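Margin note from the TA: students keep mixing up input and output lines. Inputs are the sequences; the output is the structure of the whole complex. Example:
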Amino acid sequence: MSNASSGRKPPRVGDQPLFRRLLIGIVLVVGALLILAPLIVIGVEAFSEGWRVYASTLADPDTRHAIFLTVVTALIAVPINTVFGIAAAWAITKFDFPGRRFLLVVIEIPFSISPIVAGVAYLFVYGLQGFFGPLLEAYDIKILFALPGIILASMFVTAPFVARELIPLMQAQGRDLEEAATSLGASGWRTFFSVTLPNIKWALLYGVVLCNARVMGEFGAVSVVSGNIRGQTNTLPLHIELLYHDYQAAGAFASASILAVIAVFTIIAKVALERQGAGRVRRPALSTPAVPAVEPKP
Amino acid sequence: MRRNVLPGLSLSLGVTLFYVGLIVVLPLAALIFKAASLGPVDYWSIISSSRAVASYRVTVLSALGATAFNLVFGLALAWVLTRYRFPGWRLIDAMVDLPFALPTAVAGISLTALFANNGWFGSVLSELGIKVAYTPLGIMVAMCFTSLPFIVRTVQPVLEDLDPALEEAAQSLGGSDWTIFRKVIFPLLTPALLAGLSLSFARSLGEFGAIIFIAGNQPMSTEITALLVFIRLEEYDYQAAAAIASVLLITAFVMLAVTNLLQARALRYTARS
């Protein structure tokens, strides 16, 4: 790209070969130390005591249960989150109602909040000291220190993931196609599945992939609400902490390697989906209201 | 009345409000309610205890340090990724998101392994007399890692959309590269940089998983605020946990307002240029 400009035009700012090479060099070295090295060290440490220890950690019933629990949590939390994200995007982009911008801000709140605060907040709803604690105790319903609590906390931290991808895109696409479909007699569901969904499928998948990665890796919020019961309420990230503090470093890194592989696949999926156009219509980062400041007049 | 043509308002809005209410608003309201039920005197004595104040200090100072590092390195990274094409740039571009994709606990143990005294980096650094793991420096390293993508990803699109004509005009007026960067390019990046900074800082203030492994967690010196909340919970001191968590919550709301303001400004700025 920069070759084209090196012909007749003067080079762009920062294109002098020496500066260019120096900056690329510095960025590559620091990037390798800060981003690549942590990834590599996981693999090295995981196999530091050989294949046997690696395999036996993964075969351990507690590790297997942690993997199972993480997968179950994702299988429940991600689809519910996806339905919510679609509903939120449909309501916010296809209709005008007062408070849309406020609703957007509220949906994105979990991004700004420490996962520990999220976990503590759930204690004060479902814990014994909380709103529903005594009621739940009376009916012997366990939410905290059990699977429902883990799922709820995961849903809190990932609440904005799908909605955030869909809202700017559906905002940009407008309402004309859906209005045409319904005026030709299509039902709401038919309009959604045959008109809207094909247009948003990549962005939707993009949001789902990122949401899934976060659910599987969530640590802080889940560690408050799960109670860390070994072999019962330990998700994979919590299991890593347990092994690590148990001086089973190789085991901890072996478990971590599973999550690292998932992270790498998440990034590959992300890049592939970005090539399909997902993640492009996006506000600069997280929380600028996607609704234009001046509402279009009907 | 075009707006009444499309169906599904009550269903989609109903689902949205129910979900947001149950998952997001109710827990936060419960936390605020719990903290507020303490009474001003108790509340103040908890949040101004010396151990709590020490935790704010180390959290805020480390977050400032990490954000400053990310400002420089994030800007350099965004610049290299948009301006230069070299073998492997796509790989680097993809890798920038690794800190978001890698679970924080995994990042925590691998950074600790790298920076511990017998680790790849720690062994070299300890020869130089620098200790990272189990010191405030370690907290900073963890925060740098987890919040790096924010600045890169907010600055990158602005840098991509920068009009080359502006630079050419400045060059034809005889400006040196450094002058043009300082007087033309940097001011155009400032709104995006500020937005990225506030996101990065806010994330660092709330980070937990990556830090607790590398921090050492000594009260008064390497104990971050989020960890203090966790410790109070383990001691069954729910009132103290609620009070200190509410400090983090209020800080998060303030940072959210600041970020929104800065991003709205950044958007207006780019729309004008």
